[in-house]
Amino acid sequence: MTIPLQTVGLTKNYGGLCVTDAVDFSLEPGARHALIGPNGAGKTTFVNLITGVIPPTSGEIRSFGRDITNMAPRQRVKHGIARTFQINSLFPQLTTAENVALAITERTGAASRMFSRVERDAELERETVTLLEDLSILDMANKRIAGLAYGQRRMVEIAIALAVKPQILLLDEPAAGVPTNESRAIIELLERLPSHISILLIEHDMDLVFRFANKITVLVEGHVLLEGDCAQIRSDARVKEIYLGRRHG
């Protein structure tokens, strides 16, 4: 079985500070895997290493058996790796459908010629509508991003990530800053994501984590403290003290 994503001894140093400490990690096919840890644990740094935003100091990143350690971010997207960010980066004056359509044209290489054929526009519209319909957010298609609630914008970000047809999806705190009354919709959207996509979720909302994930990795000070299923993570005294307990809420 080829592992979609694997890191071996992945390390990132900034001078004398080690923020990612020899992390060995595997994301299995179709995984629903969560990465948790207190603030400053190195979770986002780990995702930035995987996506090529920053280079590692040492170690290796492999995807489907291929070494991608030195691959550029754009190449990693074409290799099947997509992500969302803690802070959304949508085009606020465009509609939901237009934002998603732009991502599709970037994937297909049609951005420079998307207006050259009526048929191409029809194909683009069909794919956009199908994606929004599959995620049950088609009612937002013609609404401008600027007019959407924050939780709805996070859902559009996920739709855009799916528009590039990834095999691996990294979700960096999709519920961050989302009011409680909107987070339920995000959880339900996550549960509708295609089962063939391997997903790594970075999240502080433990209700979301325990509902979504079938495997959890706990990161503390850049190294892996523990990895296991939800029951193992819930019952571990170290996790309760470091992350789930009073010290980190």
Layout of strands and helices, then pairs:
Blueprint: E1 5-14, E2 17-27, E3 32-36, H1 43-51, E4 58-63, E5 66-67, H2 73-78, E6 81-84, H3 96-108, H4 118-134, H5 150-163, E7 168-172, H6 180-191, E8 198-202, H7 206-212, E9 215-220, E10 223-228, H8 230-235, H9 237-244
Parallel strand pairs: 3-8, 3-9, 6-7, 7-8
Antiparallel strand pairs: 1-2, 1-4, 4-5, 9-10
Helix pairs in contact: 3-4, 3-5, 5-6
Protein name: Amino acid/amide ABC transporter ATP-binding protein 1 (HAAT family)
GO molecular function, one term: ATP hydrolysis activity
Domain ABC transporter: 5-246
The CATH class turns out to be: Alpha Beta
Mean pLDDT: 89
User: What overall form do the CA principal axes indicate?
Assistant: globular
Q: What is the chain-wise order of helices and strands?
A: EEEHEEHEHHHEHEHEEHH
**Fourth-level CATH superfamily:** P-loop containing nucleotide triphosphate hydrolases
Point out poorly predicted stretches: 114-119
Please give the order of strands in the largest beta sheet. 6-7-8-3-9-10
Q: State the helical fraction.
A: 25-40%
Largest sheet: 6 strands, mixed
What's the architecture, going by CATH?
Answer: 3-Layer(aba) Sandwich
Task: Describe the model.
This protein has one domain (5-244): P-loop containing nucleotide triphosphate hydrolases (Rossmann fold, 3-Layer(aba) Sandwich), CATH 3.40.50.300. The chain is 37% helix and 24% strand. It is built from 9 helices and 10 strands. The strands form 2 sheets. Strands 6-7-8-3-9-10 form a 6-stranded mixed beta sheet, sandwiched between helices. The longest helix is centred in the middle third of the chain and has 17 residues, at 118-134. The radius of gyration is 19 Å and the shape is globular. Mean pLDDT is 89; it is low at 114-119.
